[in-house]
Amino acid sequence: MGLLSRMKTMIAADIHEWLDEKEKKNPIAVLNEYLRQCEQEVEKVRKLLERQYLLKEQFTREYREAVQLAEKRKKQADIASKAGEAELFAFASHEHMQYEERAARLKQLLDQTSEQLLELGEQCLALFARYCNKISQTSTFVL
Description:
This protein is mainly alpha-helical. The protein contains 3 helices and no strands. The chain has helices spanning 2-25, 27-83, 86-142. The longest helix has 57 residues, at 27-83. The chain is elongated and about 90 Å long.
């Protein structure tokens, strides 16, 4: 086992030395590869931002709808109560409570989604800044 371990270490050292020499000979290629990786990361974050924004819009629509339906059922319950319709009043009151609970859950999800959207935006800006910094370093290096 000792022999194989030593061979593995020697081969790894040779590969690292070879890579170091390649990087020293062509640092622009290394920077270009790094820039490509940054571009891919920025694109991933952009897609996540887009998806999160769509999710936020969906939660916003559903939240507004639940609030409107809760208000509608409350008005119907009031009308049923005034008309002496106990069965209709119970039904409307029950649905009013369900829509209120749904609106509360959706509001919570909407708040979480908004926070996540802000965090993703900050990450995207950080990646973009890092990307721009590397581009400026590459431009300076080439000159």
